[in-house]
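Example 3.2
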Amino acid sequence: MFNFFKSKYTIDKFNEEMLREQHKLTIHLKSLINEIGYNDEDVYGGCGIVSCWIIIRSIDDPEYIDNFFEYFLKRDFPSKVKEMSYVLSSMFQHLDPYFKQWTKNPVAGSRLAEAMLKVINGDDSEKKYGDIECMTVFAFFSEQFKYLLQKQHSLRKKIK
């Protein structure tokens, strides 16, 4: 899967750094969701899925994405790798079209944020999301996404 000259240690180090970022992101996202009025313990799982998706979108390199995703699953869900791979992949497929739309038209950020809120809160069709909620989540996403792009770029430089 990886070039012979890439050290296994450095790839694992990259994964470990990204996993730490994913955990921090999950906690920040959960507190943000609680601040905008969704004080439900169940949102933690949804925040974990969305934060993992943000990490994966920011990595933007199939080789590293596959390695991180495998590492994440084996570490956090050792007995349920196959099931969780299916769950996460289907959630990511739900978010990806909105992400692609946003990359072509950054004004479409509220749709991406609404899709994230649906993943976090469960796809409850009766729940209405306001502009303020969507823009709060989108601002959070944009800030974290830019930061992670820079971080993973500098980590990959260390590997090469």
